[in-house]
Give the backbone structure.
Amino acid sequence: MSMLTRWRPELRRTLRIALLTAVLALIPTGVVSARAAAPASCMGHESSSISPPGTSDEFQGGMAQVMPDFRAIISFFARLHEGSHEACDAAIE
């Protein structure tokens, strides 16, 4: 029995795994910093506007910069479910 014949099942399995990995790597994925969906809380809409860090001129540190100072305000916003960023802004004016 030759060495190639002996290793053929393992070689096929390895090639299948490599092919599957390559195909999965080519599947398009969503953007990590996508906007919050409509049913998200107002805080979800606000945090998606400043995340990830560096995407907002106002808060360069993103949510990590905001959280320590604004926990009470964030708690208030999280209870609002207005449906969009604009509706949230109108609700708090």
In short: The two ends are 81 Å apart (CA to CA).
